[in-house]
Amino acid sequence: MKMLVCVSKTPETTTKIQLTADNSDLDRSGVNYIMNPYDEWYALVRALELKEASGGTVTIINVGPAENDAVIRKGLAIGADDAIRVNAEGGGSLYIAKQIAAQAAGYDLILFGKETIDYNGSEVGAMVAELLDMAYVGEASHLEMNGTTATVTRDIEGGVEVVEVSTPFALSAAKGMAEQRIPNMRGIMMAKRKPLNVIDPVEATATTSISSYELPPAKSAVKLVDPEDMTELVRLLHEEAKVI
To answer: Considering the chain, what is the average pLDDT of its residues?
Structure first.
């Protein structure tokens, strides 16, 4: 089975977000970037588990500039066979989806993380599936393959949903799909020799752009109330407390 895993580069989870002076972009100075955890821990690792169980190949694809290569190489170190980087940047979800779809012909399974931890859009996977006219299962927590038929479990409110789908199809992976893997020294050394193919983007019009960013308002200070002063507590709850 041929599997394609789509990965994004995101700021490390502990990054303190700062904006440029004109609020037109994130201040990227000093930011440490990682592979999006949903892509790495769940989508990529589950693809590798399927390959180990039944054979096949795992290819990573990323849409981005040359500085993304370090993130891609980590995926190769974890166990992917090869990688594709579409040499493009920006353009929004649909633009990225079109770039991925242009390279996705012939794959039996296309995996995404359920969302990126920076923008939380959860859009690209469904867009790619639509562009390729294939089935899509979002936010899956479990995946088993039996030949060309997949049994997929999704967590829903109050229970779980189990669906069957035949290849080819696309899937976004959520928590529970797999467990994180740490690349070992052998994998890191082998990653240097695995092919990372850089290709030019296909012609596609960017349909969205970011006009500005805005940080959320600062949180107010904690107010301590004497446990015996119930009048003040009730007043604060009525006048100052906010329901979120």
So the answer is: 92
pLDDT reading at 242 higher than 80: no
Residue 24 — left, alpha, or beta (φ > 0 → left; ψ -120 to 50 → alpha)?
alpha
Chain centroid to CA 183: 19
Domains in the chain with CATH codes: 2-215 (3.40.50.620)
pLDDT of residue 109: 97
Across the beta sheet with 159-166, the strand order is 159-166, 149-156, 135-146, 169-173, 109-113, 2-6, 57-63, 82-86, 196-199
pLDDT at 241 (0 to 100): 77
Report the C-alpha gap between 62 and 83 in whole angstroms.
Answer: 8
In angstroms, the CA 237 to CA 243 distance is: 10
Helix (H) or strand (E) holding 197: strand 196-199
Q: Cα separations (Å) of 72 from 20, 62, 174, 192, 242?
A: 27, 7, 20, 11, 43
Stated pTM of the model: 0.86
- Burial status of residue 213 (CB atoms within 10 A of its CB: 0-12, 13-18, 19 or more): middle
